[in-house]
Amino acid sequence: MTKISRYFVPKFSWLALPFAAVFFLFFVIPLFLTIIVSFWDYNDYSIIPDLIFENYVYIFEGCFQFDADLCMTFKTYLSTLYFCLLTWGLTLFVGFFVAYFLAFYVKTIPIQIVLFLICTIPFWTSNVIRMVSWIPLLGRHGLINDTLIFLGIIDAPVEWFLYSEFSVILALVHLYTLFMIVPIFNSMIRIDKSIIEGAYDAGASEIQILTNIIIPLCKPGIVIGSIFVVTVVMGDFVTIGIMGGQQLASIGKIINTEMNYLQLPGAAANAVILLFITIIIIITMTKFIDIRKEL
Amino acid sequence: MHRTGSRGFYFFLIFFVLFALFLYGPMFSIILLSFQGPNGGLTFPMNGFSFHWFGELWKGAGVVDIGSAFRRSLLLGFVVMILTVVLSVAAGLAFRKQFRGAELLFLMTIASLIVPSIVLSLGVALEFRLLDETIKWFGGRFEIEKINYEFQTTLGMFTSGMGTQLTWTLPFGLLIMFAVFNRFDKSYEEAARDLGATQWQTIREVVLPIIAPSIVGIGLFGFTLSYDELARSSQVMGATNTLPLELRGLTTTVTTPIIYALGTITTLFSFVVIGTFFLIFWLLSRSRSKVLR
User: Fold this and answer.
1) Where are the domains of chain B?
2) So what CATH class is A67-294?
3) What is the pLDDT of residues A194-221, one digit of tens each?
4) What is the predicted ipTM?
5) Contact (CB, 8 A) for B244 and A238
6) CATH for B67-253?
């Protein structure tokens, strides 16, 4: 972070205090309280300080009977992980090649900036509206169904385009591919072009350059983008709610529902488990790179 | 290698164009469909062309009070923007030199960016609920009438709601500041000092004007991210609802193109805001490059 400089840099460390205060009040304390309250008791209208493990026991009820069906909790986690994996794979594929085009094929910087902004601008608009905007395309009488029927490819409208796993994943890719593009692009423009020229002069093909030089050197960007996408999908309840027609389950939705019924300690226990799993995923991914070097 | 006009170039160009279509296509479809005729439905074909649904929206036909939700979001976005700019720039100046806890604060900032939103929303809701109960307990214990009769909750748009949104906007602000100071040419600062400027004068007269365009960028993130924020603040806005929260509610209840009209208006509003920020950015960088020449 801080580089040694031959210039004098004034010390203003106290200026970070208000910034730190916000994170203390709205990040550190809330997370601590969540852990504490996950051991509390509750009834219909209030939460009661206690030290019980029922909230956790309840979550894993029936999960360790191996002759029975998979319990609700494991099913939900599996389906959430499934959404994560698919979204991750798709955003990585699309994001990587969009960044690849921008970083290596677009030669003039102004055009690079304009194309980059084209990718970024939707990020500054409403997510809900971006989800809603799929309805005219995916609906039973949507553009895609109508076109397919017109072309004679299908006889009756496809029902699973909207309010399904398909539409959820489509929307997630639509919303979050940018999280892959930015860090991967950032890694790519740092690559010394002379390495690539050298490989090319030595007779390497584009695919060899891609797999032997660019992908290894982009690993940090890929990991950072992956962390963003995976964590955002792990805790998602808005996209799965709207695009799943409120029919699909996710951990985020369970927490949200429990909060609406004021079962706060139960929600807190679920949140702690979600946080725990998210942290494990992040640690596993950062094993592949030295993240400090990148900052 | 990677020549413009090569086969690879056209292949990836098409890939990029398809991606752009994927990004913007749905958006244009709802903009088009918001001009649906009075008898038109949620999907194509267009059943005539009219401003009917904008009129319905204006009349507020059965829809919740969108106008005041919009004004609330606008105000909140503005306040969050100011705070994001001020706090990020201040922290950015502090981070130029190593200080105790710098590493920890930075890790916390990054962690805040990737913590699942619902977890944070729950945590802040718990925090304010416990605060409420403490206040009520005090009211009962010491018989403070004002608390016992009037106090409702500390949860609100400008308390818990704003704080939660800041945990989402501030990390972007700080990352932009890092990017700025990594490229910052310190010789201008040195020159100012050699001419006898105090530390504050140097910051005010030299550093801030040079980084001004980037500060506008922080403002853009601060406003738009707050204006559209939904997941984090969903549990902590108290009695009031912001525009994104109302919009989410509408997705399940509204079955007419009125929601497209609304979507068109908010999207165009976002575009105007983004455009304004870019205009300011451009003007500032132009005047900056004149000075630094």
Assistant:
1) 67-253
2) mainly alpha
3) 999 999 999 888 899 999 999 999 998 9
4) 0.90
5) no
6) 1.10.3720.10
